[in-house]
UniProtKB/TrEMBL annotation:
The lineage of its organism: Bacteria, Bacillati, Bacillota, Bacilli, Bacillales. This is Globin. PANTHER family: TWO-ON-TWO HEMOGLOBIN-3 (PTHR47366). Keywords: Heme, Iron, Metal-binding, Transport. Pfam families: Bac_globin. It comes from the Bacteria. The keyword Isomerase does not apply. InterPro entries: GlbO/GLB3-like, Globin-like_sf, Globin/Proto, Globin_bac-like_CS, Hemoglobin_trunc. It comes from Halobacillus salinarum. Belongs to the truncated hemoglobin family. Group II subfamily.
Amino acid sequence: HQPNSIYEAIGPEKIDQLVEAFYKRVSNHKDLIPIFPDDLTETARKQKQFLTQFFGGPPLYIEEHGHPMLRARHLPFKITPTRRDAWLSCMDAALDEADIKQPYKEAIFERLSMTANHMMNTPEDEK
Ligand code: HEM
């Protein structure tokens, strides 16, 4: 049958693989290292919960942490256009590593790009 959500189409294992592949890159990206914790275990756990609900699966993030308020939760970190681009480039490569196929790859990337734009809170020269 036709999947009703990205979550249904790709399944939870792909979300796990995607998030692991993503933070492996984040932890090695020169523009992102300064704002992320050294140990990304807890960050990755929360991101799996968040993306599960973002893609139309069960509301795991809200159940444990309440309303995401993502922009507010990102305000302690200086998110410049360069860091937005870095985040999205790690995600683009992670989507390939997790072997997430079209049309889902493009649908996911488009939604994450919109959210990433919304997270920017600092002009480039204040980095
Ligand atoms: C947390 C950076 C975009 C979802 C974080 C943290 C940083 C960060 C530094 C804190 C990590 C920690 O202390 O554990 C960025 C940067 C982005 C970006 C530079 C570039 C635009 C996004 C987007 C999403 C997202 C697009 C969602 C699609 C989350 C979630 C958390 C988080 C769910 C965990 C929040 C919590 O503590 O409960 N991000 N982020 N981020 N980010 Fe982002």
